[in-house]
Design goal:
It is built from 3 helices and 5 strands; from the N terminus they run ββββαβαα. It has one domain (2-82): S16 Ribosomal Protein, Chain: A (2-Layer Sandwich), CATH 3.30.1320.10. By secondary structure, the protein is of the alpha+beta class. Belongs to the bacterial ribosomal protein bS16 family.
């Protein structure tokens, strides 16, 4: 399955990203099928090829959560943004009840 994801480029400490299409399970720095644009998180600049992205989405490519949110921001997709960080299991579980101290034996 194809995925639309970010590929990190740029120098150390100042990352910019390419928006690429590649196989979902392939490494980000490996081969990719198509370059669809770029994103600079420092200046919030985004340049994408909307026609090619719409074509890839129509043919079954799935965007990652971050790319999905960028596409909503650019107006390519409509809907709510996805949370990018998963909720930890500790906060989603019910609170643990405090254990009671054992009662002292009663002398009769």
């Amino acid at each position: 399955m194809l995925a639309i994801k970010l590929k990190r480029i740029g120098k150390k400490g100042y990352a910019t990203f390419r928006i690429i299409v590649s196989e979902k399970r392939s490494k980000v720095f490996g081969r990719f099928i198509e370059d669809l644009g770029w994103f600079n998180p420092h200046s919030n600049e985004l340049k994408i090829n909307k026609e090619r992205i719409e074509y890839r989405l129509k043919n079954g490519a799935q965007p990652t959560d971050r790319v999905y949110n960028l596409l909503i921001k650019a107006g390519v997709l409509k809907g709510q943004k996805r949370p990018m960080h998963k909720v930890s299991k500790k906060s989603s579980e019910e609170p643990v009840l405090e254990a009671k101290a054992p009662e002292a034996p009663v002398a009769a």
